[in-house]
Design a protein that fits this description.
The chain has 129 residues and is an all-alpha fold. The chain has helices at residues 3-19, 24-27, 35-51, 68-84, 86-99, 101-109, 115-120. The protein is globular, with a radius of gyration of 14 Å.
Length: 129
């Protein structure tokens, strides 16, 4: 992971911690299983895997106590939840809007997130403040 990706990862940690109301150290360690911490960890694992190119085997270098099977499970689970639940989809899009604007722009073109969904989304500023 290069310096630019490390910066993107730190911004993602900050945004996730504000969105899910937890500290970064809570979701980068496999010690707690509160719902908000599990969701934050799931977002972070998916972001590392899908957008920063961290393999499932190397996920343990970024989240203490996670193995490749857990990483695969969280990625698949988040993809299912984004498809099924509108609230998770909104948080997912909001996360990219604040954490990684470049990926947010790419998402507008993606078939999975058509422009109508993006325009209908009401961005809530209270996720960050």
């Amino acid at each position: 992971m290069n310096l630019r990706d490390t910066e993107r990862m730190e911004v993602a940690k900050y945004v996730i911690s504000k969105m899910w109301k937890c500290e970064a150290y809570e979701f980068t360690q496999m010690k707690k299983r509160n719902k908000n911490i599990v969701n934050a960890r799931r977002f972070f694992i998916y972001y590392l895997w899908k957008y920063l190119g961290v393999s499932h085997l190397k996920m343990k270098n970024y989240i203490h106590g996670v193995n490749h099977a857990t990483s695969i499970y969280h990625c698949r689970k988040l993809e299912q939840e984004v498809d099924l639940y509108k609230e998770i989809r909104k948080k997912f899009i909001t996360f990219f809007y604040y954490a990684d604007n470049r990926e947010y722009i790419k998402m507008k073109i993606d078939i999975k997130f058509p422009l109508e969904v993006m325009e209908d989304l009401e961005l809530k500023s209270n996720y960050l403040y």
